Amino acid sequence: MIVSAYGFSDVLRSGVVLDPSRMAAQVVSGIGFLGAGAILARGEVIRGLTTAASVWAVAGVGLAVGGGLYTASIAATIIILIILAGIKPLEKRFIGSRQRRELVVHTNRNALSLATLHDTLGAGTARVKQFVMQQKDDSDEIGITLSRVTPVQFEAICKRLRAVPGVREVKESGDESA
């Protein structure tokens, strides 16, 4: 921004009129391109949105500092830090716990293994956060903890698990119906 405002002073003396905001416009589009590169899609999960937004925010603060808007830059930095450092733990605590679902699967002995679960769920396997098997006398009880699943995804996972040979019952933990 400083280069844009003061770097072409010799050209300005010759009578040419320049718009210093053009440099800022190019920074915004360039940082947008870098932010798009930071957003990666891995299967059904999109990652990097916070990183892309942070890079763009830092570029905006840099432009403001270069333009001499120190008070606005400090205020923006404080707001950005509050959002990044303060809201993320709250999000993990309150939203993350609501998006976690637990299943109890009753199967015949050795009917469901981690490999079978992976083959059955495919891309949905990434949502499995815990796979616990408790053996009883007549059956195996398997606890599966899923994270960040919508009700539609949850029902699809239950349906796929019910289709596995040897699986007798699939229910949500705490649910008494099958």
Automatic annotation (TrEMBL):
InterPro entries found in the cross-reference section: MgtC/SapB/SrpB/YhiD_fam, MgtC_SapB_SrpB_YhiD_N
Q: How is the protein disposed in the membrane?
A: Multi-pass membrane protein
What is a single Pfam family found in this protein's UniProt entry?
MgtC
The membrane spanning regions, by residue number, are: 23-41, 48-66
Task: State the source organism's domain of life.
Answer: Bacteria
What keywords tag this UniProt record?
A: Cell inner membrane, Cell membrane, Membrane, Transmembrane, Transmembrane helix
Q: Where is the MgtC/SapB/SrpB/YhiD N-terminal domain?
A: 2-92
Record GO cellular component, one term: plasma membrane
**According to its UniProt record, where is this protein located?**
Cell inner membrane; Cell membrane
Q: Which PANTHER family match?
A: MAGNESIUM TRANSPORTER YHID-RELATED, PROTEIN MGTC
Q: Per the similarity annotation, which family is this?
A: Belongs to the MgtC/SapB family.
Q: What is this protein called?
A: Protein MgtC
Organism the protein comes from? Caballeronia sordidicola
